[in-house]
Amino acid sequence: MDIINYFDALKFLASDHFAYSASEDIVNYDPEKLESDLGRLNLLHEISHCLLGHIDYDYDLELLIMEVKAWNKTRELAPIFKIKIDEDYITTCIESYDLWVSSRATCPECDNFNLQQKLNEFRCFNCQTRWRVNKRKDKRVTRTIIHP
Predict the structure, then answer these.
(1) Per CATH, which fold does 3-105 belong to?
(2) Helices 60-77 and 37-51: crossing angle, nearest 10°?
(3) Where are the domains of the chain?
(4) Fewer CB atoms near the end CB (10 Å): N or C, the chain?
């Protein structure tokens, strides 16, 4: 069963990567990778974001939760298309977001883990250091200390 035809109410765009663009309401997919279970699993993951109404997030932990929910939805959808679930791959994907969250939330002064205060800004509960982080998920995390 063809996944894209099954979800004919959604918009798809052939691309060189898999991603759901909430602002455009388009599922981007790499057609060359759809021959493999892993490629189809990635497509279902992005479709899952769309089906779950994942639009935006304010806090990093919200993004991590959205990723876990999208992978859970992917696990529900995969049997419909006879796609083998690769739990190791899913774990690796979720761990990459966990590492991203941890990198952003770790104090650059005392290495204490902290919670986000507001969009791209953190404050250490231990030493009171404040820092900003870069916005992009696909780039190396940078932390810039904010001086009072």
Answers:
(1) Zincin-like (3.30.2010)
(2) 120
(3) 3-105, 109-148
(4) C
End-to-end alpha-carbon separation of the chain, Å?
A: 59
Strand pairing partners for 122?
116, 131
pTM of the model: 0.90
Confidence of residue 22 (pLDDT cuts 50, 70, 90): very high
Evaluate whether 112 touches 96 at the Cβ level (below 8 Å).
no
- Given a cut of 90, whether residue 138 has pLDDT beyond it is no
**Mean pLDDT across 19-41:** 95
Strands laid side by side in the 143-146 sheet: 116-118, 121-123, 130-133, 143-146
Q: Is residue 143 packed enough to be buried (19+ CB in 10 Å), middle (13-18) or exposed (0-12)?
A: middle
Q: Give the side-chain half-sphere CA count within 13 A for 78.
A: 20
Region 67-90 average pLDDT: 97
- DSSP 8-class letter at 78: G
Q: How far apart are CA 48 and CA 67, in angstroms?
A: 10
**Burial (0-12, 13-18, 19+ Cβ within 10 Å), 49:** buried
